[in-house]
Amino acid sequence: MNNLQSLSSHVVCRCIGRMYDVVRGPFPAVVRVETTNACNARCVICPHKQMARPVRQMDDVLYTRIVDECASHRCAEIHLHNFGEPLLDKHLEDRVRYAKEKGIAKVKIFSNGSLISPERARRLIEAGLDEIKISFDGATREEFESIRRPLKFESVVGNVERLVAIRNELHSPMKIGVACCSTSDRQATMQALAALVDDFSFGKIHNWASEGQPAGRSKIRKPCSRLWRTFTVLASGEVALCCLDYDGQFLLGRLDPSTTIRDVFDSQRYREVRRRHREARQAEIALCARCSKSFL
To answer: I need a surface site. Which of 2, 21, 75, 277 has the fewest CB within 10 A?
Structure first.
């Protein structure tokens, strides 16, 4: 990084970081709860197969404690996913229902769509799920199946079609969206589902904080808003740096009967990470140093 880039990074990080400090509340706006880190897919754009931490489901007692604390602080949004396929959690519907009964305004999941049977679709809707996003990549069946191995294109499309039909039959307000980050043709990708779902979004492939800055990206640093807005709890109860820390390499704390979300969110360790981002010192944090989302 040359002197101009360094100066620009410091100015950008200082200005944006101070703004984040002003708007940050005492409790995260979004709490991401990894009820399971198991996955039935081996997508080529995902490092799940490299994950070294044990595959597990979150303990019910821990989950209940997390939701209770979120409800007491009027946290508006809980995501029941992180680094796994949430429908592999057989208690997912019960977890959704509990969060809604506790007054959580928005409960959301991301899914690869392969396990959304009509029965589970109905149960999730009846439990009160507010939003589901289906991860969907590739412009053709061949491209989809080459990326999202070993999922089948027709099966996922059919599952989404039935999910929409059941949602409409039950007159549910649940939002159904599709997210794509890898395709050779955006228009062709949208043809399969765009007319059915509520929204269809495209994102950029990131490097999972592990492969250095992609070519062509700006070399000017920016502070990561996740550190001020979101909170990621792994299935073990450990608190990860962010949702991209798939192996829990940089832990900010651990939730237990004597340690709350608010304790960790306002801890010295969390504040130190925010300070380094505010001072354009992300390179001192191994995961942030390599993360493509750490640059403009």
So the answer is: 2
